[in-house]
Amino acid sequence: MSTIKELYAYRQMIFSLVKKDLRGRYKGSVLGFLWTFINPLFQLIVYTIVFSKILRNDIPRYYLYLFVALIPWIFFSSSITVGAASIISQKDLVKKIYFPRMVIPISYVTSCFVNMLLCFIVIFAVIIVTGAGVNFLALLTLPVIMIVEYIFALGMAMIASAVTVYFRDLEHILGIIAMAWMYLTPVVYSKKIVPDRYLPLFNLNPMTHIIDCYRTVLYEKQVPDLTALLWAAGLGVFFLIFGAFVFNKLQRHFAEEL
Amino acid sequence: MAENENVIEVRDVTKSFRVYLDKGAQLKERLLFRKRSRYEERRVLRGISFDVKKGEAIGLIGHNGCGKSTTLKLLTRIMYPDSGSINIKGRVSSLIELGAGFHPDMSGRENIYTNASIFGLTKKEIDARLDSIVEFSELEDFIDNPVRTYSSGMYMRLAFSVAINVDADVLLIDEILAVGDANFQTKCFNKLREIKAQGATIVIVSHALGQIEQICDRSVWIHEGLIRAEGPPKEVDLEYLDFMSRRVQEKNRDETGGAELSAESGGKRWGSGEARITSVRSYAADGSEQNAFRTGEDIRLCVEYTVKEPLEDAVIGFGVFDMNGVQCYGTNTRIDKIGGLSLGKSGKAVITLKDVKLIGGEYTIDLAIEKGEGIPVDYYRQAYRIQMLSSLGDAGIARIDHTWDIQR
């Protein structure tokens, strides 16, 4: 409880760090902030070519089907891979000054989140330009899905960032885990093609439900299955609390380890 | 908050560090060399307790590695104690790392926001302080320029201004007052006094005992992880200086292996060689041998020499140099009109330096035996080393006796 109160007091620091990160990320590159969009767009093009032209599937408007899942996925995976190195990359601050250490993963995940929101502008542009259309009622649930994903991503980022301080390999291991996790989550394919005997395993993965909800709202234009969303929210909150607990335990020796 | 209330309470705090002899932070190393990642547990703090009351300023003193900086880090909550407890009431601002989080490409103004936010200030609070921060830093004309265009002095001024305008209840300071020029230092000092008068509690770690004496109500001397003495700065600092001078002396003796002078010391020694300086020792007024002295003490230098061929008109001289190689003083028996010395056999020259007012620092002494019109017989550069200790923070080469009479 006191942690939350303290984090609230340091909200301006979170805000400054997010701003600094967003402004500094593409500093010096010619295209600058456009990379925020170009990067996912190229991924989208590659995956679309591979999964709809080469490995043909019968999903109509596959590019949109993929796009509405890929952008949230990129948010999640960059939250944990970039988040893992966040404490180390801010070690000058951590070693020399006091502030609630959670500020760092929070601001990293938040800046990834802001990036995702910006990409959603592109998603909506595509939806409108291609005439795919939206369901406004379903859209109302979109912020909820985003918050659930944010909570889950934050929990994971806290664990990843704190453990990486003591065990630097994790940063690289997470790169592999993130890739595997993506293919074990119905991002480039549909949950429907997952064999039944693996389904329970897939359902344990909160990202399965989160990605599914995004897709239901933006692609199928329907209100998502609320029990799935609730399950994901429950897991998300669990991981956030667990992550905060782990983080608090580990942060005591950050300054000595860095 | 009531007066006389403890703002900081430190109770039986211990802290150890693991010093890894061969640390593997990577998976491969951890798995393969599990037994090899040996470490030494170094106990930096062995149980210290002290209180600081509201509006009080204390100085932590001690030699390098005694644990005073660790104590400050524990107070800042950068680290946590292994056992014991630390309680601090109110907002803490630390002047340990000035300019934390400064971004070179952002303007001074934007950096004020970033930096102040790290101290836990909200936007509204920063808005309210912005003018006083800018004014204090004297950077009004540059505040919208990127910080990378600032000189290091301007950078520190900005950083200090932010840290000191946080309105902290507790201010932790590590060797700050090396910030900026003399004018700005004075300004910082006055500001600190002002903050203290308004009821802020201050903890300073410094080697400049003069600064501590000027602002602190109490000195806490930490020695090898324990509090060795605590009390009014004037008393504790003197005790500490005494201790240090003995220590320095022992160390110097260890380093030079006594003060027997080696025959050849490449490039540092030259001359025709009829006589040679063989040893130098220094004594305090009470006759005890030492080579660390407090400013204002008498120093007796005993220079022994051997003579190979008798000299008729020898001159013995010495020069004192500071660490920058600036000669602080130099003279010889000719200048002092002692008259031509005839050195027939080995002997000893005793030079008594009265009331040596050199300021704190290390000094080297050149010694020379010459003949005739200044032909070196044995010129030994940096033959000896002394340490001057001073509790004042005055500057220059030597202290000029002075009095103040301020008329207003």
Overview of this protein structure:
The complex is a heterodimer of chains A (258) and B (408). Chain A has 258 residues and is mostly helical. Chain A is built from 14 helices and no strands. Chain A has one domain (2-257). In chain A, α4 packs antiparallel against α10 (170-183). The longest helix of chain A has 27 residues, at 103-129. Chain A is globular, with a radius of gyration of 19 Å. Chain B is α/β, with parallel strands linked by helices and 408 residues long. Chain B folds into three domains: 1-90 and 169-174 and 192-231, 3-Layer(aba) Sandwich (Rossmann fold), CATH 3.40.50; 92-163, Orthogonal Bundle (Helicase, Ruva Protein, domain 3); 259-389, Distorted Sandwich (Coagulation Factor XIII, Chain A, domain 1). Chain B is built from eight helices and 19 strands. The radius of gyration of chain B is 27 Å and the shape is elongated. Mean pLDDT of chain B is 81; it is low at 256-260. At the A-B interface, α2 and α6 of A face α3 of B.
Topology:
The complex is a heterodimer of chains A (about 260) and B (about 400).
Chain A: H1 2-9, H2 11-24, H3 35-54, H4 62-84, H5 86-89, H6 91-96, H7 103-129, H8 136-139, H9 142-166, H10 170-183, H11 199-204, H12 206-218, H13 226-251, H14 254-257
Chain B: E1 6-20, H1 27-32, E2 39-53, E3 57-61, H2 68-76, E4 83-88, E5 92-95, H3 108-118, H4 123-137, H5 152-164, E6 170-174, H6 182-197, E7 201-205, H7 209-215, E8 218-223, E9 226-231, H8 233-256, E10 269-270, E11 275-284, E12 292-294, E13 299-307, E14 311-322, E15 327-332, E16 341-343, E17 347-353, E18 361-371, E19 375-389
Parallel strand pairs in B: 3-7, 3-8, 5-6, 6-7, 12-19
Antiparallel strand pairs in B: 1-2, 1-4, 8-9, 10-19, 11-13, 13-17, 14-15, 14-16, 14-18, 18-19
Helix pairs in contact in B: 3-4, 3-5, 4-5
